């Protein structure tokens, strides 16, 4: 829900969980689409951007993609860092760099780069099924 002062109010079970400026949410969306584009450039498979703004106050967007090899997982993760650094956003944390699931936290956006088996096992799209998918390709093309 957006009010007249250009802030977004998120509610869960009728309780306010987050109040954010519309500009901050828009910047998070742009960053999520930027990361999804990097995933695509480095041949990530089935890249999805999930809009979590009305689901949780912890972060705004998940970017989920699949790489076929550890080298590809690392390339996607490393070049996402570069793209975010170019716009002044530093990675806050990373985990799983030596596993089949690399998770990088950029604050409002979290990148998940999976091997095919790990993506099937953890099934984040189903876990967060109430989060709408963003048409990130259209957003990138319109930018």
Automatic annotation (TrEMBL):
Alphabetized SUPFAM superfamilies for the sequence: Nucleotidyltransferase (SSF81301)
Statement: the UniProt record of this protein carries the keyword ATP-binding: no
GO CC term (a single one): cytoplasm
Keywords of the record: Cytoplasm, Repressor, Translation regulation
KW Kinase (keyword) present: no
InterPro entries registered for this protein in UniProt: Iojap/RsfS/C7orf30, NT_sf
Family as reported in the entry's similarity comment: Belongs to the Iojap/RsfS family.
Biological role: Functions as a ribosomal silencing factor. Interacts with ribosomal protein uL14 (rplN), blocking formation of intersubunit bridge B8. Prevents association of the 30S and 50S ribosomal subunits and the formation of functional ribosomes, thus repressing translation.
Protein name (Swiss-Prot/TrEMBL): Ribosomal silencing factor RsfS
Annotated organism of origin: Thalassoglobus polymorphus
């Amino acid at each position: 829900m957006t009010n007249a002062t250009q802030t977004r109010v998120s509610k869960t079970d009728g309780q306010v969980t987050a109040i954010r400026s519309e500009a901050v949410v828009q910047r998070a969306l742009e960053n999520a689409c930027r990361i999804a584009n990097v995933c695509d450039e480095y041949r990530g498979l089935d890249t999805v951007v999930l809009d979590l703004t009305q689901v949780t106050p912890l972060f705004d967007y998940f970017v989920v993609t699949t790489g076929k090899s550890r080298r590809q997982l690392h390339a996607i993760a490393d070049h996402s860092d570069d793209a975010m650094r170019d716009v002044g956003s530093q990675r806050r944390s990373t985990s799983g760099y030596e596993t089949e699931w690399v998770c990088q936290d950029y604050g409002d956006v979290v990148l998940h780069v999976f091997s095919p088996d790990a993506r099937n096992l953890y099934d984040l799209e189903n876990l967060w099924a109430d989060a709408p998918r963003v048409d990130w390709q259209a957003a990138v093309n319109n930018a």
